[in-house]
Specification:
The chain is of the alpha/beta class. The chain has 14 helices and eleven strands. Helix 2 runs parallel beside helix 4, helix 6 packs parallel to helix 8 and helix 12 runs parallel beside helix 14.
Amino acid sequence: MGRVSRRVFATAALAALATAPRASAVPRPRAVPAAETGEMRGMWVATVTNRDWPSRPGLSAARQRAELTAHLDAAVHNRLNTVVLQVRPTADALWSSPYEPWSQYLTGTQGAHPGWDPLGTAVEEAHARGLELHAWFNPYRVATHADPARLTASHPARRNPGWIVPYGGKLHYNPGLPEVRAFVREAMLDAVRRYPVDAVHFDDYFYPYPVAGQTFDDDLAHDTYGGDFPDRAAWRRDNVDRLVRETAAGIREIRPGTRFGISPFGVWRNADVDERGSDTRAGVQTYDDLHADTRRWARENWIDYICPQLYWNIGFAAADYAELLPWWAEVVRGSGTRLYVGEALYKAGDPAQPAAWRDPAELSRHLALAAEWPEAKGHIFFAAKEVATDRIGAMARVVADHYQRPAKVPR
């Protein structure tokens, strides 16, 4: 999701802690749910680095559109009902935004008009197929490189160099600056004003994933705004909390009925750090490392749905899918926040992954296990390229075992 490098880091951190996988009891595949009950069946379409779409920058408008509609058709073919399209991958836009430049992933040149309206077309074509279109935004990532001079001359980050922090070989907006939070919120909500998207979607990037030996330099912002907090971590969490609350309020005001969902990294905190945490030994914890209190957002119903990225197999010692699923079910219980589960289709058949991922039935077992928890209202698969290619038939197995009939998104 621009997630590839992050996933490598997180998986490596987990693998370093892992011992032999634990055995987990797995229920038999569930009966196909009645279509009228509703179930999230989604897939992410990542545009950052042309991960899923467009297949490369610089394609003609007709070719870009054809590739996009092919992904939508693949979703329908697999009886999915939702596409989560990344429309603001790096402080840019897949629509004609008055705030930010056109994305370089369309034409190869940041700021260049692609000759068509990708987001408007995506909404129209998705709805024509009975699919929901969730607009996926990355709030703070400015670039996948660390050179401001490579940004187009009119880029807001170049006009406001004090807004950006180089870190981990990338450029990030500083979440500690109120003017940054206001800007990114308005830049994102512009899409909600212009298009009848069904939901606004954030992924797992808030403060950046930690990089060994590097410091995220927000000293000046902390000195200016952080005096009322016990430590910098608490101040950073409050900054992220404010963005979430303010974005939710903006969505309700602009387009009532449009939902707001977030798909965080799957571990909030490990239980050895916090007794409320999960029975995991993850190398990354969203609360401590990304300063994102995802548990609070769900429990206090700040968002309409949460879709934790449970990108580990059943029995993985450091972060067992079978441990994390019930933990998240307990988090949302009674909250009003719906729980969907992020699924690592991209791992299926990858020889670099644990052996469990070479079994085409692994993901089907995830859905069977989730059927035991009424709080789990569906799944979103990463990502569109793997839905289309289905390397070892894992997606086909999910469809055969669980998606024999269409289903609407739960309301």
